[in-house]
Each structure stands twice: as structure tokens, then as C-alpha cells.
Write a structure and sequence with these properties.
Shape: rod-shaped
Order of helices and strands: HEEHEEHEHEHEEH
CATH class of the largest domain: Alpha Beta
Radius of gyration: 33 Å
Strand order of the largest sheet: 2-1-4-3
CATH architecture of the largest domain: 2-Layer Sandwich
Low-confidence stretches: 1-24, 201-212
Structural class: alpha/beta
Number of domains: 2
CATH topology of the largest domain: Translation Initiation Factor IF3
Number of strands: 8
Distance between the termini: 95 Å
């Protein structure tokens, strides 16, 4: 009973065979590590050396830390002393932060007719610019009807015009391509926004003027 009271490790809910090396996707910690000896790394990354598993578990108990297997394929396996609960929590936090920082790019679609009037074109162009400003790719589709299919150059020129009109926000990722009655082109947002000149400080001009007068004097 005294030994059970002193054990600070959470008991394993899974059984592990002492013989052999069963394949497991879970990290083995504490009494789930069933090898005669391990290469031990301290909590601050210091190399302790090769020690018996009993000694490694004892050191973990004394430090109130977990013995965590970090390199199971090594011979002997490499284990480190750490707070495993804290380690898992911080790893999950970093993973969530990484996913949050990733910009999810979606593809918006904008459809035009080859003989579109000026007002409609400006409206569609405004939609494309708004999509690109939002970090989205835009698939532009020219829809041909009837005899328009025999004039693909109309659609091609219209797509070229649109690409030039939004070149400050996006770049052509997929060049115009005829697909049956439609012609498509994909525009991707620029990776870096255009740099704007930094406004001069209100104090800059008077200071420069005084310096110039002093230099002339």
C-alpha cells in the first residue's frame, strides 16, 4: 500500500506487452515504458545518459515530473523528464494558433457576357476587386451564347482588360481557357499589398528649412 501511495504517475488504461515492441500511435509515458534502460534527457534538455528504467522512473518521481518517450526507435529509446500534461496543453494551444493564423483562400466566381455594357462591367469589376481585397481567388467566366461562340477573341480581350484593371490587387493564376460555351480565367490575390509612401512628419519641413538656413549661414 505504501508503494501505491508514493506513485505520482497516472496509471495506464492500456496494457503493454513486456516482450516485443508493439506498434502504438500513442506516446508512452511513465510505467507504460517497458524497456530495461533508456537514454535520459533532463527537463532542461541536459543529457543525463543511459540509465536503468527503474532509476529513470525514480528521478521522475523525485522531480514530480513524467518520464516521456520521445524517440522510441532509438536504441535505447530516448526519454525526457517533463510535465506531460502541460506539454500537451501547450502543443494544442500552438496548433490552434497556427490554424487561426492560416489564411483560408476560397474561390469566388464572377460571370460576364462577351458584349457586356460599360455599367455592368464596372459593377462586375468592383465585385472582383472586393473579392481580391478579401484574400479570395476569383474565377471569371465569360458565357457565350449562339453565334458568340464563333468569336472567342471577344471573351479573351475582355478577360485581358479585367486582369489589367485589377492588376494592383491580383495576378492571373490560370490564363484564359475555352471550355465549351464558356471561357474561364482565375485571378489570385497578391501576396503582399502595395506599399504606400509614408506621410512626412509635420515637424520635418521646418527642421529641414532651419538646417538649410544654418548651412547657408
Amino acid at each position: 500500500m505504501h508503494g501505491l501511495v508514493r506513485r505520482v504517475f497516472a496509471p495506464s488504461l492500456h496494457t503493454t506487452s513486456i516482450r516485443g515492441d508493439p506498434i502504438s500511435t500513442e506516446t508512452r509515458i511513465n510505467d507504460r515504458i517497458r524497456v530495461p534502460e533508456v537514454r535520459l534527457v533532463g527537463p532542461n534538455g541536459e543529457q543525463v545518459g543511459i540509465v536503468r528504467i527503474e532509476d529513470a522512473l525514480r528521478l521522475a518521481q523525485e522531480a514530480e515530473l513524467d518520464l516521456v518517450e520521445v524517440a522510441a526507435q532509438a536504441r535505447p529509446p530516448v526519454c525526457k523528464l517533463m510535465d506531460y500534461g502541460k506539454f500537451k496543453y501547450e502543443s494544442a494551444q500552438k496548433a490552434r494558433e497556427s490554424r487561426r493564423n492560416q489564411q483560408l483562400t476560397t474561390i469566388k466566381e464572377q460571370k460576364l457576357r462577351p458584349k457586356i455594357d460599360k455599367h455592368d462591367y464596372e459593377t462586375k469589376r468592383g465585385h472582383v476587386r472586393r473579392f481580391l481585397e478579401g484574400g479570395n481567388k476569383v474565377k471569371v467566366t465569360i458565357m457565350f451564347r449562339g453565334r458568340e461562340q464563333s468569336r472567342p477573341e471577344l471573351g479573351f480581350r475582355l478577360l485581358q482588360r479585367l486582369a489589367e484593371d485589377v492588376s494592383d490587387l491580383g495576378v492571373v493564376e490560370a490564363t484564359p481557357k475555352q471550355d465549351g460555351r464558356n471561357m474561364t480565367m482565375v485571378i489570385a490575390p497578391n501576396k503582399k499589398p502595395p506599399t504606400r509612401p509614408r506621410p512626412a512628419s509635420p515637424d520635418t519641413e521646418p527642421v529641414d528649412a532651419q538646417a538649410a538656413e544654418a548651412h547657408q549661414a
